[in-house]
Amino acid sequence: MNTEKRNVGGRILAIRGMPQVITVTIGLLIIFAVFSMLSDNFLSVRNLRNLMRQAAPILIIGIAQSFVLITGNIDLSIGSVVGMSCMISATLMTKGVSPANAVGITVLSCLIVGSINGLLVAKCSLPPFIATLGTMTIARGIAQIVNNNHNTDSIGEGARVFRRLFYYEDIGGVYSSVWIAVILWFIFNFILSNTRTGRHIYAVGSNIDAARMSGVNINYTVTAAYLVSAFCSCVAGLITCAAGGVGTMDAGNTYELYAVAASVIGGVSTLGGQGLLLGTVVGALIWSVLQNGLVMAGAPVAIRNIAVGIIVVISVLLDIVVRSGKRIRHKKTS
Known about the structure:
The protein is mainly α. It is built from 14 helices and 2 strands; from the N terminus they run H-H-H-H-H-H-H-E-E-H-H-H-H-H-H-H. It is globular, with a radius of gyration of 20 Å.
């Protein structure tokens, strides 16, 4: 029995990226325990429900960035696509378009941005930092111009179902935005873990030349990752619109940084080829617990930003050190 348990434990630890997930999970539990001692209200049911709802959009954009990072690229347009999604959907609904049609048009618009990102990076060989920096600016410009450089009015009573579906509905004691994040996680985790596209995403990030020689369609794989990123960003924008009931031009501002934080803290490598979406869940929760706990502890915004920034830098540094050590050991044994 003990041998079987050791074998199961060994197989779990052998999963690429699992040791990092276990490490950050321990970190999450420690942070959770600290804030539980600092505030009596931290473990209240109300606060935990709000904490999960706060983590939902961060998890969604974390999934978005994780797909792209695993291919060895980055998506800086995530926050702007969130803002574009929020503004397009809200503007359409204030102009009398039905919520269903508004959502459909918004999704299509965001997917166009994702396909452009994939085209620029994969087909045109543009550095992902430059390509997505450009589309980030364009998407933010669209968010500003779609309603003549103004935030929208309230999307109105006609969008009540939309707001309940994307944010306010309580299903089994859990808000609908959390259920949306969970469903998206299961879908995209399955794609990443159990499909050929998922294997190709890891292959491209591990060694793009070897992947190309193995017959992997690089253009399709990289574009698919950017499409996932755009879709998830779009959903986060719809949640933002539903939460406030209006479209705001600065919606999603700095979300690309939060997406990187959730991914990298969760063990997704910035060097590509490594990471699990399970770790992204933990990364999103760490970000949310830090924000929520520091607020309840009375810490100013500056301290909250500094804390998250330090954790991101340490996470990336540890990833580089570990990956560099593996390369050195590999060279010595070869």
